[in-house]
Write a structure and sequence with these properties.
Layout: H1 12-24, E1 32-39, E2 47-56, E3 59-70, H2 81-88, H3 102-127, E4 130-132, E5 138-140, H4 144-156, H5 174-193, H6 210-219, H7 221-224, H8 230-245, H9 267-275
Antiparallel strand pairs: 1-2, 2-3, 4-5
């Protein structure tokens, strides 16, 4: 292939094919050079870009933007050149012959540190606004999705008393409940490690609201099936639990760990596991 007879600029497909052919034929890569051009944003600029120009034997093979960083969406600072290449490389980036220059990385870091601070402040200011819930409470925007979730659960479970036999299938599914529980565990862990434990504030405010009271009455097995002896209650309880956990595909539930015990597993999940022949180990009494 005589590159001197080729046009000065090739299409991306042609350029990539030439580079690929060079590798396959173990061509002398010393003949391939890449020139880089860093373009920093001006006053109204919204991105940082790096152009890579591939030259083979003094002929330009390709010249394309190989790194593109949209500044308005950056919320974390890449720690290494590899981080930037992984996150922001375009389809024109050729990892076998291209790499972000150290001097470019240092300049990009300066811009990103300032940009991340501005972006986080903008997001925080938006989220720190307040909204009014349907019940009239004013809450921070941060908390509104959680309150909305609680109201949605109330609607699914028909807290307003509109439940019929036909609407039984609309109960909260077990896999949905697990997803909510995992998000709650993550949130509680974050807040607790910040010093905001679950009892730090006035949590009693929502412990006995309309939805919580409805769920307490609906799912308290002791009151619902009163008048039965202990074994009969246990049998009824197992039947009820099985129905609750059968409203989703079992494969959607995260399997319990081998170390799970009755101390770390809810009664409902333990009953479900037992009915599937996977009895949960009894934990030591405290």
């Amino acid at each position: 292939l005589n590159y001197a007879t080729k046009p000065l600029m090739l299409s991306v497909i042609e350029a990539n094919k030439i580079i690929s052919d060079m590798r396959e034929k173990n061509a002398n890569t010393e003949d391939i050079k890449v020139w880089y051009q860093l373009r920093l944003p001006n006053d109204n600029g919204k991105s940082i870009s790096v152009r890579g120009t591939v030259i083979d034997r003094d002929s330009v093979v390709s010249s394309e933007v190989i790194i593109q960083i949209p500044l308005d969406t950056v919320t974390t600072i890449p720690r290494t050149k590899h981080d930037i290449e992984c996150r922001y490389a375009t389809e024109h980036f050729q990892p076998n012959i291209m790499s972000l220059k150290d001097s470019y990385f240092e300049k990009i870091q300066v811009y990103l540190k300032l940009t991340v601070k501005e972006n986080l402040e903008r997001v925080a200011n938006i989220e720190r606004g307040t909204v009014t819930l349907e019940n009239g409470d004013n809450v921070h925007q941060f908390a509104s999705p959680i309150h909305h979730l609680c109201e949605t659960i109330g609607q699914i479970e028909r807290v307003d008393g509109s439940r019929t036999i036909e609407s039984r299938g609309l109960e909260l599914k077990a896999d949905e409940a697990e997803g909510i529980q995992q998000a709650l565990a993550r949130l509680e862990s974050i807040l607790a490690n910040m010093g905001y434990g679950c009892k730090s504030f006035n949590v009693e405010k929502y412990q006995n609201d309309e939805i919580a009271q409805f769920m307490d009455n609906k799912y308290d097995m002791g009151r619902m099936i009163g008048g039965l002896d202990k074994l009969e209650k246990q049998s009824k309880f197992e039947q009820y639990c099985s129905a609750r956990f059968s409203n989703c595909g079992e494969d959607l539930l995260t399997p319990l760990s081998e170390n799970a015990t009755s101390n770390t597993t809810s009664r409902v999940r333990a009953t479900f596991e037992a009915l599937r022949g996977r009895a949960v180990k009894v934990g030591r009494k405290s």
